Amino acid sequence: MVYLDACIKEALRLSASESFMARLCTEETTVAGIPFKPGMCVEVPLAGMHHDPEYFPEPEKFNPDRFLPENKDSVKPFTFMPFGNGPRSCVGMRLGMVQAKTFLACLLRRVKLEKCPETMVPVKFKPRMLLPVTDGPVMLKAVARTTPTS
């Protein structure tokens, strides 16, 4: 389940459900020379951070190894936030991760997913504002395993 967890996190990094996270500034402060005043809306560009080579080398490459326990120090704090962070992070984060892992573990025990001739490789995405949308269908074939994995 460790590698499955890493795969889900990498998929979330590549195509997060939110492009940005908005927060309301509550006190006057300066960050990196930029002044912020109470009442200002601050938008954190999550998609930009998740695809920045400064934070994630080879950002367009699917590399679940980034999120394995032995590599956890390579992910800088507050650069991977698909569910937000802190006290206002998504309340359903843990439930969503458990559901995704359970579904994928049950599915992948019984079938192997293969690309079809119609599968677009690499998958291309349309320019977006909020949600990632593929530039065409993603076709996969579910092939039954002869014996389910345990």
TrEMBL record:
Gene3D superfamilies: Cytochrome P450. Transmembrane segments: none annotated. InterPro entries: Cyt_P450, Cyt_P450_CS, Cyt_P450_E_grp-I, Cyt_P450_sf, Insect_CytP450_Detox. SUPFAM superfamilies: Cytochrome P450. Keywords: Endoplasmic reticulum, Heme, Iron, Membrane, Metal-binding, Microsome, Monooxygenase, Oxidoreductase. Its cofactor is heme. GO terms for cellular component: endoplasmic reticulum membrane. Its main location: endoplasmic reticulum. It is found in: Endoplasmic reticulum membrane; Microsome membrane. GO terms for molecular function: heme binding; iron ion binding; monooxygenase activity; oxidoreductase activity, acting on paired donors, with incorporation or reduction of molecular oxygen. It is a peripheral membrane protein. Pfam families: p450. Heme binds at C90. Belongs to the cytochrome P450 family. PANTHER family: CYP9F3-RELATED, CYTOCHROME P450. This is Putative cytochrome p450 ixodes scapularis cytochrome. It comes from Amblyomma triste (Neotropical tick). The lineage of its organism: Eukaryota, Metazoa, Ecdysozoa, Arthropoda, Chelicerata.
